[in-house]
Amino acid sequence: MKKYFIIFSALLHIFCGAMEGEKFTLPVQETCSTHNIEDLASYVIQDIHSSVKEAECSLANPSDYPDHYRPQDGEEFDFIIVGSGSAGAVIANRLSEVPSWRILLLEAGGNPAKSTEIPGLYGALQKTSYDWQYQTDSGEDNCLAMVNNSCNWPRGKALGGSSTINAMLYVRGNKEDYDGWARVGNEGWDYDSVLKYFKKSEKVEAKEVLEHNNYRDYHGEDGYLTVGTFEKDYMSELVDTYAEGMEELGYKANNDCNGDSQMGFSKLQGTIVGGRRCSTAKAFLKPIKTRKNLKVSKNSLVTKILIDKHSKKANGVKIINYRGAEVRVRSKKEVIVSAGAINSPQLLMLSGIGPKEHLEELGIDVIEDLPVGHNLQDHMLMVGLVFSYNYSRQLKPITNYMYDFLMTGSGKLSGNGMLTYSGFINTLDISSKIPDIQFHHFDFDAKDKLALTMTLRMLGLREEVGKSFLELNSKRFISMVFPTLLKPRSKGRILLKSTNPKDKVKIISGYLSDNEDMETLLRATEFLSKLASTKAMESLDTKFHEIVAPACSKYVVSSRDFRICSLKHFVTTCYHPTSTCKMGPADDPTSVVNPQLQVKGVGHLRVADASIMPDIVRGNTNAPSIMIGEKAADLVKQHWL
Fold it and tell me: For strand 353-354 and strand 368-369, is the pairing parallel, antiparallel, or unpaired?
């Protein structure tokens, strides 16, 4: 309450200072009466306290979400959906539109926490109970600047999945991504075919998008998912300077990377509504929380898909419920796995669907020999590059920002700073319409030790490496600038460590295992060096810094050898794992599901989430995962209706 008292006192001082000695008429139920200044002070304090408390209680209110359902052993449903994330929540909504179908949605986590609603605090959700807290394998030649030579891989564990803990950026990727899927045999997944599903989900409210005359060609207005705009008021000068610098290098400003063109310095839209996070739980489950044919079981870990060995058809799942009891639930039509690019392959392999040799090593009976867990792709980014500026902005106490957020859905906490702007470039061809690099940014005011320390911990950097960032920030405003590889050639793999479903999997990221990825990131680093030297950026006295990991100090800073060494130390995840249950045509031996998302060789079983992407898209993966959920629901309806 102390922070609220500060706010109340300040507001009361301003209010009463302007009105000292006057009388006021205040409403009391249906009548009016006159009060002196002492009565007014008490009234204002109570009114503000009540308003703030009401706003705080509205954050992630449990009544916003479906009630917890406890399925009974042997209970039957038409469809069982595993995972309520970016795709699973969408599928649950759309399938339950059919009144005669009974749907069970299973989620390993619970309701979202209040902190998940605040866009500016998304980074603090990592390493909490709302995060699966995965780590990459420490034996690879990457993540060397991270604690234990292992990169953090956060994944959401709550209603809404990773859409509940992510940075809320709404980016669909490039038209070529989906046309590329179709060219290799995935009929119905070309850009023109999937665009209608992006539009179906979307309720666009972003002003900068609505200003385009042709926005309806690319955006929807009647969907469940609110796509809004982030504020930039408190950092306008920095944003404008970036835009001018990018233009000097040939890339114009772009207010809609999901429209005509993806290229340039782009203001990104977000899955936000009223300045608060709009997860798929809020968008797709909240409006249908009382739908009778949808049951949602929370804190329910699915441990195995039940498959009849003779017919090779899925007919249910085995779960451990919130009380620790094992329950078997039956499906009359299908089991749909939407647990994400890590959990989906884990569940398939535990159920006997996966690489024969790997499963046999663990003593798992093989039902279908498929390359589950292979083809792992992620947008790797480089965290060792920093811009510093002669720049400052007017700041408020955190209590003021919280008050702005609670009462008006505005201010610093309702946005993600410079992260809500991205540069999309092609490091080989400036005229190309297909980017190979996206730039993300984290910005920190001078001497913002608390926020920077939290970010360094979020990234998993070793303490001795983090000191270099803190030293730069002790003197100047800084941005950590992250070149992000949009089309990695390097691939990794998900492997089981044991047959215990509660054990985490082994994640082999594969970062930098293909030299072409190294070369693209080296070109991106050079581009940033040029950006810092543009006239626009020089107006802020911008300096380009390359953080030196101790093992790289033997090389000349900025030399090729130094930058290669730095990449091995500072490359980490952009939180976009995909492609571990690859979609492909019948004759593709590297695929796990067909273009209808049915698991090959196993009946009544589908996978629908980011794991089915044949190749990762050129952009943040939340919006494409929601699209996959929409299309998957239609595929199911077309099959059964």
Answer: parallel
Secondary structure letter of residue 500 according to DSSP: -
Task: Note whether 398 and 379 are within 8 A (CB).
Answer: no
- Report which residue type is found at 319: I
From 441, 569, 576, 604, the catalytic residue: 576
Going from the C-alpha of 218 to that of each of 197, 485, 623, the distances in angstroms are 11, 25, 13
Q: Which residues pair with 314 in a beta bridge?
A: 307
Matching residue, tokens 């309450």: 1
Could you give the C-alpha distances from 489 to 412, 520, 576, 579, in angstroms and in order?
Answer: 37, 11, 15, 13
Mean pLDDT of the chain: 92
Give the DSSP H or E segment for 543: strand 543-546
Strand pairing class (506-508; 493-495) = antiparallel
In contact, 441 and 625? CB cutoff 8 Å: no
pLDDT at 46 over 80: no
User: Catalytic residue at 49?
Assistant: no
Q: Are residues 627 and 223 in contact, defined by beta-carbon separation less than 8 angstroms?
A: no
Write a three-state SS string for 51-87.
HHHHHHHCCCCHHHCCCECCCCCCCEEEEEEECCCCC
Per the CB < 8 A criterion, the answer to whether 257 and 619 are in contact is yes
Q: Is the pLDDT of residue 9 over 80?
A: no
Residue length, the chain? 641
Q: Is the Cβ–Cβ distance between 347 and 617 less than 8 Å?
A: no
Which parts of 261-366 are beta strand (E)?
264-267, 269-270, 272-273, 276-277, 294-297, 301-308, 313-320, 326-337, 353-354
Reported pTM: 0.93
Q: Of 446, 414, 411, whose CA–CA distance to 122 is shortest?
A: 414
The amino acid at 171: V
